[in-house]
């Protein structure tokens, strides 16, 4: 019998959703933040998509957003030449970090004491959040605007991507360790601490590299241009989305395409697995986020598995469906 994937649709944004990030698992569950060109990043309950609040204060498109591990702080990167740090519990703005150009990416260290930023001025900046008045440390070397910058190796190193280059930096010496060059634009980058894996997308390719050495591990080709990909926490599956509005799910070990789903009405800009691996979230040009089950038919969050005998009295269709009770 077929199992029907029924995504939860999270509305509220008015422009394309360009970035999203999950927190770690906290005593209150886990959380999801989304960055949008409407300039209003939103915080949601991660497993249901329920809206918690909107961070108000940016005066331009928000290109990047992240949460610290315990979801007490949020950070956002925007076209108004600022990065902002927020109290994710109260929604209050804690600090504004002025830049000289559009900011595209933000990332907290594990202890939440430092914030890494990158953007159109080609510089990486490291802010000490306990000394907001202090000038940030700056790392130069990129030759085009920085799209993504991430702490790695327990914050001892930094990974960053510009148009066609991924670079690995040593935090202590602020110097470049190694770089990777691509023949087309790098569209996304994800770092998996368990196993030190780096996921890079460019063109139709989804490539996996060692985050320590940048050596290649494996790569897959998708049927369409891919904008983002995410590896399951247990490294069983990966999901990817891009220009053809579809989400693809692959077996990480064999590279076999397991499923593909169309739910968005525009290109997919970002996709990430939840920290427990039970779902993945996607953000699109259509202004929505959607939450998808990793294992269709499992009762989890707002999804409840309805068996054929339970719906026989309502209709004669015997398709198994994993149906959300309400829309977020």
Automatic annotation (TrEMBL):
<dbReference type="Pfam" id="PF00400">
    <property type="entry name" value="WD40"/>
</dbReference>
<dbReference type="InterPro" id="IPR020472">
    <property type="entry name" value="WD40_PAC1"/>
</dbReference>
<keyword id="KW-0507">mRNA processing</keyword>
<keyword id="KW-0508">mRNA splicing</keyword>
<feature type="repeat" description="WD">
    <location>
        <begin position="261"/>
        <end position="293"/>
    </location>
</feature>
<comment type="similarity">
    <text>Belongs to the WD repeat STRAP family.</text>
</comment>
<dbReference type="InterPro" id="IPR036322">
    <property type="entry name" value="WD40_repeat_dom_sf"/>
</dbReference>
<keyword id="KW-0677">Repeat</keyword>
<dbReference type="GO" id="GO:0030512">
    <property type="term" value="P:negative regulation of transforming growth factor beta receptor signaling pathway"/>
</dbReference>
<dbReference type="GO" id="GO:0000387">
    <property type="term" value="P:spliceosomal snRNP assembly"/>
</dbReference>
<protein>
    <recommendedName>
        <fullName>Serine-threonine kinase receptor-associated protein</fullName>
    </recommendedName>
</protein>
<feature type="repeat" description="WD">
    <location>
        <begin position="55"/>
        <end position="96"/>
    </location>
</feature>
<dbReference type="InterPro" id="IPR015943">
    <property type="entry name" value="WD40/YVTN_repeat-like_dom_sf"/>
</dbReference>
<dbReference type="GO" id="GO:0003723">
    <property type="term" value="F:RNA binding"/>
</dbReference>
<feature type="repeat" description="WD">
    <location>
        <begin position="96"/>
        <end position="137"/>
    </location>
</feature>
<feature type="repeat" description="WD">
    <location>
        <begin position="139"/>
        <end position="179"/>
    </location>
</feature>
<dbReference type="InterPro" id="IPR001680">
    <property type="entry name" value="WD40_rpt"/>
</dbReference>
<keyword id="KW-0853">WD repeat</keyword>
<dbReference type="GO" id="GO:0032797">
    <property type="term" value="C:SMN complex"/>
</dbReference>
């Amino acid at each position: 019998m077929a199992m029907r994937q029924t995504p939860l649709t999270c509305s509220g944004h008015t422009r394309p959703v360009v970035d999203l990030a999950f927190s770690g698992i906290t005593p209150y569950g886990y959380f999801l933040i989304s960055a949008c060109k409407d300039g209003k990043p939103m915080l949601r309950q991660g497993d249901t998509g329920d809206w918690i609040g909107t961070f108000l204060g940016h005066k331009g498109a928000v290109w990047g957003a992240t949460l610290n591990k315990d979801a007490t702080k949020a950070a956002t990167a925007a076209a108004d030449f600022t990065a902002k740090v927020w109290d994710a519990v109260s929604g209050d703005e804690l600090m504004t970090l002025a830049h000289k150009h559009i900011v595209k990416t933000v990332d907290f260290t594990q202890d939440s004491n430092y914030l890494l930023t990158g953007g159109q001025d080609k510089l990486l900046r490291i802010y000490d959040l306990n000394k907001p008045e202090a000038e940030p440390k700056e790392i130069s070397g990129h030759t085009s605007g920085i799209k993504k910058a991430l702490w790695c190796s327990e914050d001892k190193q930094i990974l960053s991507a510009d148009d066609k280059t991924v670079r690995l930096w040593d935090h202590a010496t602020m110097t470049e360790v190694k770089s990777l060059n691509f023949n087309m634009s790098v569209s996304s980058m994800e770092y998996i601490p368990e196993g030190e894996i780096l996921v890079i997308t460019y063109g139709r390719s989804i490539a996996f590299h060692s985050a320590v050495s940048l050596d290649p591990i494996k790569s897959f080709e998708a049927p369409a241009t891919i904008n983002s990909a995410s590896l399951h926490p247990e490294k069983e599956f990966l999901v990817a989305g891009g220009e053809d509005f579809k989400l693809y799910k692959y077996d990480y070990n064999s590279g076999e395409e397991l499923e593909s789903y169309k739910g968005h009405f525009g290109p997919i800009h970002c996709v990430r697995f939840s920290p427990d691996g039970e779902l993945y979230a996607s953000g699109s040009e259509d202004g929505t986020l959607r939450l998808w089950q990793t294992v269709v038919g499992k009762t989890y969050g707002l999804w409840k598995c309805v068996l054929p005998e339970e719906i026989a009295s309502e209709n004669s269709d015997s398709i198994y469906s994993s149906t959300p009770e309400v829309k977020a």
